[in-house]
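[#protein-structures] MJ: dropping NADH-dependent flavin oxidoreductase here for a structure pass
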Amino acid sequence: MKIFDEYILPSGVELKNRVLMAPMTNFLSNEDGSVSLKELDYYARRSGGVGAVLTACANVNAQGKGFEGEIGIDRDELIPGLRKLAASIHEQGSKAIIQIYHGGRMCPPHLVPDNDTVSASAIPAEREGAKTPRAMTEDEIEQTIIDFGESTRRAIEAGFDGVEIHGANTYLLQQFFSPHSNRRNDQWGGDVQDRMNFPLAVVESVKKAVTVHADKPFIIGYRLSPEEREQPGITIDDTLQFADVLATQDLDYLHISLSKFEQSSMRDANATTPVIKQIQHRVGHQVPVMGVGSLYTAEQVEQSLETVPLVSLGRELLIDPDWIQKVKSEESVQTKMDPEKKEEVIIPEPMWTNIMSVPNWIPVKE
Ligand SMILES: Cc1cc2nc3c(=O)[nH]c(=O)nc-3n(C[C@H](O)[C@H](O)[C@H](O)COP(=O)(O)O)c2cc1C
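AK: finished. structure tokens for NADH-dependent flavin oxidoreductase:
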């Protein structure tokens, strides 16, 4: 099976197979952002089978905290806990990659200092009750770029094999690339090329930290969402132009965040070509592309690996932490959450209640 083929990333780091655990927020860290014991158990349970575990998003500064119980990577005092997390993933036999992030205008005000949410521009998200954020000053932008570099240094010191820059799912990097949330007319905004400036400066800062601090190959991935529904909003054409530039940045992979691997454009009802195929066709010869989205069975993953070299699995590994091991031994995998197996699959509270109370998010066994 293709799933079990090894893969050498451009940095030289070798993955033992083609499947990664998708980054998933677990609400399990301590209030100060430090790693908790139940979080270590949760990760250990799903590590081992996959080539690499992508952790939940970790905030790079206090203003970027977007979830209760979020893991932090914004202070040196958090490094000992992060070290335990990397070690517990390694002990099971998977590489460990931490996702670094800033939530921007999507942060709940009560989670950030002085309720002061920020973004590229003072434009609220299009959702009920969204607060209008404050446009970041140039100094804050420069500092945030530094914070992504400093977070990368902490990831290296904690023993992670890499970082994934979270440029997807409507958070700060996407907010700068988006014509909806970025209406700036300084060097950080403008046309589609100019709107790449902030994410590219973050990439540069992360790369610099790796050059200065890593003494062995270190993975740098970039996650992006290819489209937005808003008008104006990110289009496939914008994303293909962005992918062209990202493909020249010596990244280890581009992770394309989609809820269904094969989905076509959500802005164009007549579109039929899967977005992932368009991106792979455009830049797949320059940078490895990773797909994701509702791939529950081994057959679906095998089929996806005909298009891209890497895939990540999210909910599948919540439902069945032994997914890879079972596929390897030709056993059938669970594709629906069994509420009676909460303890066996190790999804501690409050994660269990948070994910199970959102209708239709996690497929549930009748
Ligand atoms: C509980 C949960 C938390 C998530 N948190 C994150 C996150 O922190 N960062 C991120 O990039 N995506 C996050 N996602 C999205 C997943 O990485 C993935 O893209 C999505 O679940 C679709 O893949 P799947 O069908 O394999 O679950 C989360 C998804 C779930 C189910």
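MJ: nice. The radius of gyration is 19 Å.
AK: one more thing. The mean pLDDT is 98.
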